[in-house]
Specification:
The structure is a homodimer of 333-residue chains. With 333 residues, chain A is α/β, with parallel strands linked by helices. Chain A has 11 helices and 13 strands. In chain A, the strands form 3 sheets. A 5-stranded mixed β-sheet of chain A has the order 3-2-1-4-8, sandwiched between helices. A 5-stranded mixed β-sheet of chain A has the order 11-10-9-12-13, covered by helices on one side. Chain A is globular and about 60 Å long.
């Protein structure tokens, strides 16, 4: 019996007898590594974050510096909880880029300017704990399946609407990363191969139509051609403020939001045609609009699906774990 | 030890001793059910079709008649081989539509005009053998992974270019069917949401640009506006004849083929961005062109991928099992 299995067995026995549940709970460390901040949390067996900390990434420094920062943050979280490394089962990191999950290497991250950083080995050396890494959106999708809006589902796609469109795929309850960790860039499916310029270099990706950045671009253009629109009196046009203007009855803003939901639904219908998941979750900034976007998206998506059977339509809803998904998903990798 | 396991053990012993390999080989029956023909084959443990038959589907009759036709064809194949039902491990059927693989029901097939046909139960009643069903393109993808061009690969997408674009996905070595068998209609991803009318009802699907039907439409349009083109002197414009005219130096045909390969590659790059499979196989009529399409498709696909790392590009090649894939894949479901 390995040490870990023995530990788990004791844990089960103790639990059934009602002894020492706090001391013997198994913790995992989850790291949500972003271009701006590093969030570290201690996650228990019930997928609850019992302690957390957030520190700046300082992405301009060399990778060694960022990884040292992750390590320091982990130590502070452990300290905060009165624990040490050996009290934990392992460390998981969600990184903003493509990862070789088997070898624990971040292949490439644009937001960190990383190429081939052996992140897992660097953290293993410091903490002598097993370290797993994966893409951040994949971690978020896994968290939703383990403990969030998609709990118990087998095949789920999470789409996050932020500066860009992120995506994570869970198939048969585990993350699908694709060959060499390249997969699941769903924001870079086409809506129009001759269309809007995308940040990836080609034209017409879904990202260039349905990210929150794209929504702001669409609103600015419309405001320029409609001087009477309330959008022109806003101190700043943001995704949030376009929705607010629409709510206050601004005709231009309403038209933009309707069109934006159509774009969103075109990509969702692509996902349904290609993967037919049980559930599609929407996360990221724009998802705070809830039913305001879900209702039109469901309608447009159904109209644009190949298989129009009512029962074949996946459930489309908002992701429930917000910022915690990254930490929890990384912890349970 | 179950009867089946005992049988397999005897089989292995006999094989290693060199006795009775023919008599003790395990056969499976594979049915490739098409809108025009029903192809039935007896498949051995080495994924070889040892006997086969093809009969017309007569799709205009009721489903009971088609299923009776499948049953009769199975009996003729068994008879041809001097076998009976109990000599076989099971029956598999690849059907042209969406299937509930767990309950063995063909939900919907446009080419057969079927809705909710309990195909597996109907054949089980007649043959008293386990019957499995799946979508025909999924069966073809499975066959390629088991014994064809993708042998040994884990994550593979097969795209078939025919009247429409079919697709099959294999993930972790098994067919991915999606929720309620709806998945993998990759031909119905968008290239241009305002573009060509697609047979599915919406505009701009890949199918409307890169199926062989679409190639013929593109060639007819071009021939009309270019009276000098050799295409105008053809008795009939087919996918094949456009490639031939291009090979003979017809400028219009060359331009059409180049554009067609671009359309093909746009969809392939979508597949890479969404699923990053190890390998993408191209099958169906147009695939007989081999390197003539592969070379430009690889070039355009790489240019259009999000992850441009050389090592992250999947292998793109032609499916190797042709018409046999449907039977073999169904047999090993």
């Amino acid at each position: 019996m390995t040490e870990h299995r023995a530990y788990k067995t004791i844990q089960k026995l103790e639990r059934s007898a009602g002894f020492f549940p706090v001391i013997l709970a198994m913790y995992r460390i989850g790291v949500d590594l972003g271009g701006t901040n590093i969030a570290v949390g201690l996650v228990n067996d019930d997928y609850v974050i019992t302690a957390r900390i957030s520190v700046p990434t300082n992405a301009l420094q060399a990778a060694e510096g960022v990884v040292a920062g992750i390590g320091d943050a982990i130590e502070r979280v452990l300290e905060k909880s009165g624990l040490t490394g050996p009290d934990c089962a392992g460390i998981g990191v969600g990184a903003p880029g493509t990862c070789d999950t088997e070898r624990g290497i971040v292949f490439r991250s644009y937001s960190l300017s990383w190429n081939n950083v052996p992140l897992a080995a660097m953290l293993e050396e410091r903490f002598h704990l097993p370290v797993r890494i994966n893409n951040d959106a994949n971690c978020a999708a896994l968290a939703e399946v383990k403990a969030g809006a998609a709990k118990g589902c087998k095949n789920v796609v999470l789409v996050t609407l932020g500066t860009g469109i992120g995506s994570g795929i869970v198939i048969n309850g585990t993350i699908y990363s694709g060959y060499l960790g390249s997969g699941t860039e769903m924001g870079h499916m086409l809506l129009d191969y001759n269309g809007e310029q995308c940040s990836c270099g080609r034209k017409g990706c879904w990202d260039a139509y349905a990210s929150s950045t794209a929504l702001v671009v669409q609103a600015k253009r419309a405001a320029f051609s409609r001087p009477e629109s309330r959008l022109n009196s806003l101190p700043q046009i943001t995704g949030q403020s376009v929705f607010e203007a629409a709510e206050q009855g601004d005709v231009t803003a309403i038209a933009i939001i309707n069109k934006y939901c159509e774009y969103l639904a075109l990509g969702i219908s692509n996902i349904i045609n290609v993967l037919a998941p049980e559930m599609i979750l929407i996360g990221g900034g724009v998802s705070s609009q809830g039913e305001r976007i879900l209702e039109p998206v469901r309608k447009y998506a159904r109209e644009n699906c190949f298989d129009k059977r009512e029962e074949a339509m996946p459930i489309i809803k908002i992701a429930s774990m917000g910022n915690e998904a990254g930490i929890i998903g990384a912890a349970v990798l």
